Amino acid sequence: MTLESTIPRFSLVVPAFNEVRYLPRLLDSVDAAGAAYARGRTALEVIVADNASTDRTGEIASARGCRVVRVRRRSIAAARNAGARSALGSVLAFVDADSRIHPDTLNAIDEALASGRYVGGASGVTMERWSLGIGMTYLLFLPMVYLTGMDTGVVFCRREDFERVGGYDEDLRFAEDVEFLTCLKRLGRQRGQRLVRLTPVKAVASTRKFDQYGDWHYFPMLARLGLSAGRGRSRERVESYWYQPNR
Fold it and tell me: Which of 132, 137, 142, 156 is most buried by a 10 A CB count?
């Protein structure tokens, strides 16, 4: 066995805070994608960036064969960056712990990057359940997705390009993924490349925020964030929504 054959092609980074409930089903979907990958399962490493969990998240990840990186600072951007720093693969991919990925995700990313036309991109998502409120929230973001080419789900790029744009901005408490893709898009434009949306391999996104706050909660939440920004309370609302989850 050569040294090259032991180095993974893909490093999938999973930021995780108290994800005992959802992490196993994500890893089940990752196993299916690894089994379907043309280069073989050994070409994929999974890194769980355990973001100060107080449950058995890290233990479960380790038992499933993941590499666990402990990240004390409660920051999604910091967790993603820490996972990326420890990665061995030439392609970096990022996915939320409460998602599930499509079985053909790795093959689709490989094909897109091999074309040379794309600097990176995302798979996009479908929701694990639908309702009128969830559907309207989904539609709210579609114009931005179509206009910018930026999406969510499994976000990916070449390792060298991740380093070139400086990774995720750890000063941002939310929307760090939008900022990262904006920087990646700018880099690609300099080389005649663009972002790609791999919609045939959409990830399945959790609806737990909707389950907790209600299917229509996003609309009043955005309004409250806008109003509280002028009163200096937006950080409090951000911390409550994104960093103090009920789990």
Answer: 156
